[in-house]
Amino acid sequence: VKEQYSLEFYFNKP
Amino acid sequence: MFEARLIQGGLLKKLLESVKELVTDANFDCSESGIALQAMDNSHVALVSLLLRSEGFDPYRCDRGFSLGVNLNSLNKILKCAGNDDIITLRADDNSADSLSLSFENPNNDRIGEYELKLMDIDQEHLSIPETDYDATIIMPSAEFQRICRDLTVVSESVTIDVSKDTIKFTAEGELGSGNIKLKSTSSIDKPEESVNIELGQDVSLQFSLKYLMNFTKGTPLSEQVILCLSEKMPLLVEYKMDIGYIRYYLAPKIGD
Asked: Of B14, B174, B184, B252, which has the highest C-beta tally within 10 A?
């Protein structure tokens, strides 16, 4: 099963 | 005081159509430089970011930065009352505004519709998206990308995108079978909008949910071309450029086994 991380995982909050 | 008059009002109608499936409520951040919006879908795997530059409006006036919290479904309903050729003007007082005024002027300037949309407080998190050097950048006809997503949805709910030297390949595998579409890079001097351009640093292979990509292709009427940017283990960027700005969609990949 492939995982799909949320975008917070890639884009840091400022 | 905020006032933005858009001669090509139809553009705003198309823009709303292209975000409303993904996001229900969002803040329009207004500043001297223009109108921006960034919002994630409920599952936080997709994000939409749009910008309308102030130069695209005539006139544009925004004394200080503030946000307009809008239910996009409601705004879309009101914008449906505007004709495709109407000039649309948006007005709001300032931070204390509890409604957004919209007026729709027909090209003959003999019919003017005026509407008020109630605003809401939206507490939205803002992600800082870094400038990225992508492994692969593809510029292709937006209608072709839309067709590929629609066709492969028949086969599966996900698509694998492989980019190599001069080819981009979309592959879907599902219970009924499988399908793939390969596009070779082409260049048409007469019709550059019909060509497929591949800029490649290194080969990329990534899998994405077709449901979200189908949503992104709601942006197709905004531009004849779509730009796809991919890097291994990074979100996909799907961009439609307009004369007065852009709409960008980001989608987290499906990774690992």
From this structure: B252
Residues 124 through 183 of chain B touching chain A, CB cutoff 8 Å: 125-130
- Closest of B188, B231, B223 to residue B206, by C-alpha: B231
- Is the complex ipTM more than 0.85? yes
B65: helix, strand or coil: coil
Gap between the Cα atoms of B176 and B139, Å rounded: 31
Could you tell me which residues come within 8 angstroms of residue B23 by beta carbon, excluding any fewer than 6 positions away? B39, B40, B41, B48, B72
| CB pair distance less than 8 Å for A10 and B234 | yes
Q: Is the sign of the CA dihedral B38, B254, B140, B214 positive or negative?
A: negative
B257 in reach of chain A (CB within 8 A): yes
Residue B81 Cα distances to B18, B110, B114, angstroms: 17, 16, 10
- Residue to mutate among A1, A2, A6, A7, with most B CBs inside 10 A, is A7
B152-179 residue pLDDT tens: 999 999 999 999 989 999 999 999 999 9
